Batch of 3 targets.
Target 1
Amino acid sequence: MKQTIDSLRRELEQHNHAYYVLSNPQISDFEFDQKMRELQALELQYPEFFDPNSPTQRVGNDSVSGFEQVAHSYPMLSLGNTYSEAEVRDFYERIRKTLQESFDIVCELKYDGTSISLTYEHGLLVRAVTRGDGEKGDDVTANVKTIRSIPLRLHGNYPDLFEIRGEILMPWHVFDAINKVREEQEEPLFANPRNAASGTLKLQNSSTVASRKLDAYLYYVLGSDLPSDLHSENLQAAQSWGFKISNATQLCKSLTEVQAFINHWDTARKSLQVATDGIVLKVNSMQQQKLLGFTAKSPRWAIAYKFQAEKALTRLNAVAYQVGRTGAVTPVANLDPVLLSGTTVKRASLHNADIIKALDLHIGDMVFVEKGGEIIPKITAVDFDARFMVGDKVSFIKNCPECGTPLVRYEGEAAHYCPNETACPPQIKGKMEHFVSRKAMNIDGLGSETIHLLYENKLLTNIADIYELKTSYLERLERLGSKSALNIQASCQKSLEVPFERVLFGLGIRFVGETIAKKLAFAFKNIEAMQAATLEQLIAVDEIGERIAQSVVAYFSNKKNIEVISRLKRYGLQMSLTDNQLQKQGTSLDGLSVVISGTFSVHARDEYKRLIEQHGGKNQSGVSAKTNILLAGENVGPEKLKKAINLGIQIMNETEFLQKIKAKDNNDAGFVNTAGFVDTLF
Ligand code: IVH
């Protein structure tokens, strides 16, 4: 059996490599998943053949622990930076003078992620450590194992012990998708893929890391027993062992070739899937590297040429102030249109009052706009030489541009806010748009234009008014026929079934995103209890900090909000958990059918049946296409197991299953009670 398991592991490793390193998949995702499930099932049945480097170990686990600090066997140094081709020439000349013999330079892309050092022993990944302070870093092995392009087991002719260093990256499309979700949930955005990658690597929960789809390029092999004296050949060898080595790596025999490489990639890099911020030049021969040596901070045999951030010079015409749904006021610069990395830029973010002050901006100034790793262009400086007869100095407004209310700035926050939550037009309209959105009340037919129209016609002044909209009014509105009017009404009716946690999210309380709303709903069970909660009681709830608690207290101390809530209650919206939800301990198995087979050691079979129901799942007796999970104990029925494998059903052992209901429901607030203690089952 060990042989079958091993060969399945090898096969899956090869497919992983083909997919994630070579970008050349050999089988369909479906076939891959089937094989993976087959292996999972076998490992479950034969725990004696457990292997920490098996492909099944890439899914991550939910254990929460701090990272252990580990000393690097070779310090992780940084590179000297240059910003001009003249400095690259100086570097080249310096090496020529020191070596007094011919030499080659390997040019590589400088990947803009977070660096990692991987140790392999006997072809197995044993440790992954972050750069840290260069001397010692965090052991993030569990997280790194979830990165599919990093091999857990090597093939070919590798040294018994070596380290390989490289960059962990978050591809642009993953970065964009994550930020989109964070924006929806009002969580702070990642500024660039570098921060996102390093933040992800430091997460305590490796299943979340696995979901973030990181990638990695390796660029530096270290050890006492390397295949070659040439860096380029070691990289090639590493590629043959299974590592992802960039194809944008070139051996250059002259300065002209180096310059051509730089010029080519300065533009070609824009179509890459991952962020790069320069070129790294390395002397190819390691013997020559030794001769050149190191300074205190960096090697003399390598240097980084940094690409110029794309910059353009244009005129600042005005500063506009936008008020969002939460009342946050964002200053936006209106500029003379200018071309920057292929797009015309007319506006740039000015972030906040401190930044405006630091730039010493005046209307009419010529300003530098840059698009770095960030998505929105920003103003980085004023061209003071071009300052001639400029207009007024820009100073942050004191009153809300929409309603005139004096702005406030909360302690520790960079942004200014309009506190007139209940009567400031963009805040009201924004709140209504949020209330009807898909993840909240899911009311169709009320887009931002319709809301604007209804607001202008005084038919909507707060979220409760939505339930008073009469079809007879709606029909008469421009652009809104009777069909749309009926649709809105039907949708409102349907929204009465939306569960309490989503209603709570829909209210638009500052900092109460989807997850927090769920936590609060399960902790307090109904709106009255939440309204009565003190700051301390709120803070006692898992994951609720002072900032959120204060915001909740402030929301409920506003009379207008209380009025809106009592109206919503009257219209029949769900303002408490349903009986069904109250009986439930969690939602981790919502809508899932589970089959139990075999004998168990932690809980009795009947207890598992009860747990499945308490967590929203359904017990099923036989495996069918409708089954979602096979909870397999010892001596699991062989027929059931076979059927589950064939149907591609998830197979879990006792521990995995308990972890699923525990970890997921902690996230979902299923276990939280008002006192803030987390009820565990074990
Ligand atoms: S070589 C001793 N090669 O840039 C030389 N570094 O400031 C070790 N980086 O911390 C580094 N791409 O995180 C090297 N092709 C590449 C690189 C690269 C990105 C990063 C790396 C390092 C930093 C140097």
Target 2
Amino acid sequence: MNPLLSKPRIFRFAPSPNGRLHLGHALSAFLNHDKAREKGGRFLLRIEDIDTTRCTPEFETAIYEDLAWLGLAWENPVRRQSDHLDLYRDALDRLFERGLVYPALLSRGEIKAAVARFEAEGKQWPRDPDGTPHYPGTERTLSSAGRREILDSGRPHALRLDMGNAIAQLDAGLSWQETGAGPQGETGLIAADPAAWGDVVLSRSDAPSSYHLAVTVDDALQGVTDVVRGRDLFHATAVHRLLQHLLGLPEPGYHHHRLIPGADGRKLSKSNGDTGIVAFREAGRSPGDIRAMVL
Ligand code: GLU
């Protein structure tokens, strides 16, 4: 094909400004940046700041500083999710109109108590791939008028996907192309299992969109062709594929990369001060040292 006619591949690094970037982020950013360069593609940076209880402008500024210090250049303007809440709301409305979303009233504490009561009888309550118990689905059977009534009542609620109903909309199983590997080394064409997640949250009273919804809408809107991210999000891809199908959005390719463990062997978190990029910088390490450490 004439390369001038083929569309460029689009990669994105999508951190949340809820802490300083660590070595795992450096790996993700380098991989996205380098693959984009290698393929003559584009490298985008997206700020995933819908969780206003944890994200701050100071951490956002620090992301720009850390990435620039690492020697990475991204396109401007940077997309910031909190600037586009109306778009996630539109997507949610479309799913609601089709009866695929219901308002869920149980708080985290109430869900925990319901699960504990159930498991006290020696039975096993289903859990998602991250270990979180599935929502009991108390309001799933409400009519659309009943659902609307809760919305209009002003009672605090989350909006959840009716997973059973959503899966019933599929005429074939969902899959995705994986060029990296999952936690068990899965690669190639992967069968997606969104049911494993139960009725996922699509928005909460204090967060107008969930990560799943915003990431799916934004990847499509930005024309992302290649999602390169940590293996901790491998199983979440099943939910993203389902939402893409329901919302009529294109399917990117996926590459899940290894996670960098901390000194204690556990997954790095943003509170791991000693593996923060800034800590290495202050200790006199160079961007080349960071590259050598993670790649
Ligand atoms: N914002 C997510 C994070 O900080 C990454 C989302 C993604 O790459 O799909 O872990």
Target 3
Amino acid sequence: MAKIVLVLYDNPVDGYPKTYARDDLPKIERYSDGQTLPTPKAIDFQPGTLLGSVSGELGLRKYLESLGHELVVTSSKEGSDSVLDQHLHDAEIVISQPFWPAYMTAERIEKAKNLKIIVTAGIGSDHTDLDAAIKHDITVAEVTFCNSISVAEHVVMMILGLVRNYIPSYQWVMKGGWNIADCVARSYDIEGMHVGTVAAGRIGLAVLKRLKPFDMHLHYTDRHRLPESVERELGLTWHASREEMYGVCDVVTLNCPLHPETEHMINDETLKLFKRGAYLVNTARGKLADRDAIVRALESGQLAGYAGDVWFPQPAPEDHPWRKMPHHGMTPHISGTSLSAQARYAAGTREILECYFEKRPIRNEYLIVEGGKLAGVGAHSYSVKK
Ligand code: NDP
């Protein structure tokens, strides 16, 4: 019998929903690169329901208990009375989501003597110390592609929101005003602007594709160049380095994983390379940017706006300066956990668990670490400390 610890975000303050705004989800046959959606043998949940909060349990309880396993579901992950820490010593599997990450540090991994696999119900396993997972031969897997489009949609929304000054204008309505000039004194069109993505993986490329009809000039930088046909079709300009790309862009969006090569890549020095009045959207990871450098750049006007949904740590403390800095459009970490995305990552987590318990290989595209080394998609997209 295995113990599975599932760390999920809290239920809504008004309680777990009894009804939903819509009755179904659109049917998606395949991801845009041809990858199949998750293929568990069965699911025990209704797609379109709230699966990512503690009462949703990712729809896993029936399945796991039918196999005789013990499932612990909690949102308590930090502090001296953390339920996660209480169960780590004999947990075989830890599952969490980047929105409410169980930070699987080297210390926690050291204590978890029985731990065999860490699953990210979503994308991005930077909350796990990959070096420690490698050292202890713990498998790390995530549900690649499950919410990439969800995030790309959020990026487009945030770019439009910042450039068109949507949130302050909405606030004028809420305050009972009709203050056109206050609303538009910072409002522009994105048409004709230059937008660049750091990384053109699943999310970055999807953002570029979605922005093309807005008649923006599209730029990207990545470790591997996209096929020439894709560059031609979208009219992309490739840059050999991100530093070279920043200066030509009115809008920059970050879509790369957090790893030693990318941590704090946005800092006081690199922000000087941006055009004055550029907008920065970061839905990838909070630690890609130096927290206080972002605040300084907004206060000085070097950045005209900053939006995103990723912070460090998560949940962000009440006094996190990004809550109150000027011209921001931050959300809590929600872009990849729409009800649509939840159905996919819950099914993907179930698929990974079925493979694990039935001793079948986990899909290569889900693997980050296996057999004491970076593996699968992890070997392609991540790096470890040198
Ligand atoms: P992909 O693996 O498809 O894309 C990541 C891309 O980043 C790859 O093209 C990779 O390049 C590139 N890359 C890696 N390191 C660098 C670097 N140093 N400089 C430039 N490019 C680099 O992942 P996704 O697009 O699906 O997701 C990207 C990230 O977005 C995730 O790692 C995660 O952190 C974040 N995310 C956020 C979510 C949210 O809810 N806010 C949800 C999902 C993801 P190459 O392959 O060429 O080596």
